[in-house]
């Protein structure tokens, strides 16, 4: 039996204020306005993926740092 995941209200605000540092793949894709597979690839390249038993969590701080490297000034 799988549990249905619920959408987190005000996800961007929670991450921005530091109340939620880790997100799941689906939440991260929604947060960064990316497709699921693209977000998974970015998270892996940024070494931001943590496996806790059967749950995959992504550190948003590491993803932010990784994306800042692509900034065109």
TrEMBL record:
InterPro entries: DUF6462. It comes from Variimorphobacter saccharofermentans. It comes from the Bacteria. This is DNA-binding protein. It holds the Pfam family DUF6462. The lineage of its organism: Bacteria, Bacillati, Bacillota, Clostridia, Lachnospirales.
